[in-house]
Write a structure and sequence with these properties.
Elements: E1 3-8, H1 15-28, E2 32-37, H2 53-64, E3 70-72, H3 75-78
Parallel strand pairs: 1-2, 2-3
Amino acid sequence: MKTGVLGGTFNPPHKGHLAAANAVHEALGLDKVLFIPTNLPPHKKLPKGSATTEQRCEMVRLMTEPYPWAVYSDLEIQR
């Protein structure tokens, strides 16, 4: 199974995330692309008023739900 990985803060998740993942999915013939939100980004501080980790995860889950190739993963949250 060929799998791609797209990680990030997803603050917020948007159509650009889906478009980029879908382009790679199609170009490389991937079976799935994992969308992995980070818990606390190591490279930047989230702006005041940002969505919580739980809210960002739920938004990613809802965004990927209609696409069989797009899979939400809480791997980084559980780590």
